Amino acid sequence: MRNTAVPRELLLPSLLAVCVLCACTPGPDYVRPIQETPQAFKEAANWKQASATPIVVEEKWWKLFNDPVLDGLEDQLNIDNQNLKLAEAQYRAARASLDSARSAFFPSLSAAASRTRSDNAVGLAPGTNYAATASLAWEIDVWGRIRRNVDSGEARLQASAADLAAARLSSQALLAQSYVALRASDLQLALLARTVAAYERFLELTRHRQRAGVASPLDVAQAETQLATVQAQRIDLANQRAQTEHALAVLTGRPPAALSLAIAAALPTLPATPSLLPSTLLEQRPDIIAAERRVAAANAQIGVAEAAWFPVLSLGGSLGYRNASLDRLFDLPSRFWSLGPSLAMTLIDGGGRSAALALAAAGYEQTVASYRQTVLTAFQEVEDNLGAARLLEQEAAAQARALAAARRTREIAEQQYRAGIASALNVVTAQGAELSAEVGAIAIANRRLQATIQLLKNAAGRLAP
């Protein structure tokens, strides 16, 4: 009868081959968490675009505002903003971490040289030994632990890239919003300057009428109060503008003293509102992409934790020379070598592996919840700003009518006051109403621009690297 037993020297290689063929990647296969999304945004249902031609959002989306000063600030931000430099460094760290994880696929080779002096207690003469060795170590990824680590590293790198894109878009939008707020302050300062001049003329008129005996001290006191109030508002607004200018300097990577922007006479141009779809928002918004990639990374970590239950198969070897004489160290009789596989497995760990697996599973659930919350927050932001863009347009029209009426009221009150048929209180009240209406008109224009900036930021997400 023919002997079909596997030779002893082929037994271990055969077992290794069987392990490799039977190996599987641990942990669940990744599936993106299900997130219910509507077919369209609710606030866009009654929105009527100003133009039938869809707005084209390019990488430098802020150019739609047609403001050269804003363009220069944005270009400077992209170069010197420190938050972007931080995000770029974090991206490089994630890439290095992935390279480190991939290196585990390959064997490691090390070399060493030594000289040792030894003695003993049996009366023999002390001895000196010289050695030069090279060692090879290679973990064979039978159970997929290394593969899952690499999968996790790749997902984290993608999340870091999305973080960088999100940081860039957020910084660009914050600068644009701050710049628009600065220009709104400019308009309000110009308005208050005109108002102070008008109130000073009215105060002089009231004092003249008092001297003529046709106005009371109360009329003068009311005019003085109104003037001082507006002067205080002007000083406070100048302080707000200075702080906004300081913030713009920091966003562009400069100290506040290095930036000084001249007063402008108008707000940037209001571009058309971009159209957005819920499905494309999920695909292009960087913070959503980053959150989803972190879910994938956490899913891979479950596989890493599960792989700890399986033995680690490694191949090790060494080659070297050892001799008591340095001159004869590399002679053939001084050579030694070893080569062979090893299998190691933890049998008892006091529940450490179970705890690690539970920790990985909990981490995955955390990232899923974070992803879903990020999506919900993004949808809320778009709905808020779509609603703002639509309703603020209507509010701006109503405010324009209110301002026109307040201006007519003030003109009539001043004419009647000069004619002596109206009191100073009527004029003061009309002047205050006109000022409030004009300040409100500027504020609404500012809010419309702010809402459009947020929508442009979402539309520009697909352009981010």
Account of the protein in words:
The structure is a single chain. This protein is an alpha+beta fold. The protein has a domain at 54-106 and 145-186 and 227-309 and 367-465: Up-down Bundle (Outer membrane efflux proteins (OEP)), CATH 1.20.1600.10. The protein contains nine helices and four strands; from the N terminus they run αααββααααββαα. It has helices at residues 8-22, 68-80, 82-102, 145-211, 217-251, 278-284, 286-307, 352-419, 424-459; strands spanning 108-118, 127-140, 312-323, 335-344. It has a four-stranded antiparallel sheet, with no helix packed on it. β1 and β2 form a beta hairpin. α3 (82-102) packs antiparallel against α4 and α4 (145-211) packs antiparallel against α5. The longest helix has 68 residues, at 352-419. It is elongated. It starts with 7 loop residues before the first helix and ends in a 6-residue tail after the last helix. The model is unreliable at 1-6, 8-12, 17-22 and 49-53 (pLDDT under 50).
Please give a handful of descriptors for the protein shown.
9 helices; four-stranded antiparallel sheet; 465 residues; Outer membrane efflux proteins (OEP)
